[in-house]
Amino acid sequence: MIRLHHIPGSRSDRILWLLEELGLEYELRTWSLTDGSLRTPEFRDLSPAGRIPALEIDGRAIFESGAIVQYLTEREGRLAPKSGETERADFLEWVSFAETQAYQLQALNIHHVFLRPEAARSVPHMKLDTMRLAVTAKALERHLQDREYILKSGFSAADCMFGFNLYATFRFLHETDFPNFAAYRDRMMARPGYAAVKASGENPLYTRDFYELPDG
Ligand SMILES: N[C@@H](CCC(=O)N[C@@H](CS)C(=O)NCC(=O)O)C(=O)O
């Protein structure tokens, strides 16, 4: 039995998408970011920092999406270059890069969506985090100018690591500034494997398609 602990529109999108691409059977258990359930002993036993995703598999629970991606691809022997193969280093770099980008998205989610009252927000920090997100988006934009997927050789689990990022980035950056990245998002979201991510629902915390930086 494989059970994914999931919140739609979060980093568990990465794992849901990968399970689909690998054709594995799984159960979904959906949690909430706001009802306190991630702070319970039950969830902390699965993920000690109380973070999503966690994956129950092979008699244990694994936390950290990058570790789960590596575990699943090694277990299945697919969707990642093996140690010693060309593109192994590229694969590892971009799996970690997706998390660097996600960190900036998380910071912007906190500023724009979670922090209340609005006066608690720091506009200089919002600007800095938007700029740092844009640096990651420019890097991806350049990387995608000569390829369809993160790896030149084709679709891999490194693409799945961008699952949450594809959903969130263009809430804070204008997609017209990153045409390769936006086209990549559209290609990835059109994959049959991504349909389960869409079907699992929207992130209920986003009430707008785009979050402008406040003046100041
Ligand atoms: N590096 C971790 C980050 C996990 C993470 O921060 N997940 C978010 C959802 S996208 C979460 O659970 N946030 C709850 C919280 O911060 O309390 C991973 O990639 O799994």
Plain-language structure description:
- By secondary structure, the protein is of the alpha+beta class.
- The chain has two domains: 3-76, Glutaredoxin (3-Layer(aba) Sandwich); 88-191, Glutathione S-transferase Yfyf (Class Pi), Chain A, domain 2, CATH 1.20.1050.10.
- 47% of the residues lie in helices and 7% in strands.
- It contains nine helices and four strands; from the N terminus they run βαβαββααααααα.
- The protein has helices at 12-22, 41-44, 65-76, 88-114, 123-143, 157-160, 163-168, 179-189, 195-199; strands at 3-6, 27-30, 54-57, 60-63.
- Strands 2-1-3-4 form a four-stranded mixed β-sheet, with helices on one face.
- α1 packs parallel to α3 (65-76).
- The N and C termini lie far apart (52 Å).
- Glutathione (GSH) is lined by residues 10-11, 33, 38, 50-53, 64-66, 99, 164.
Keywords, separated by commas or semicolons:
Glutaredoxin, binds glutathione, 7% strand, Glutathione S-transferase Yfyf (Class Pi), Chain A, domain 2, 2 domains, 4 strands, 4-stranded mixed beta sheet, 216 residues, alpha+beta
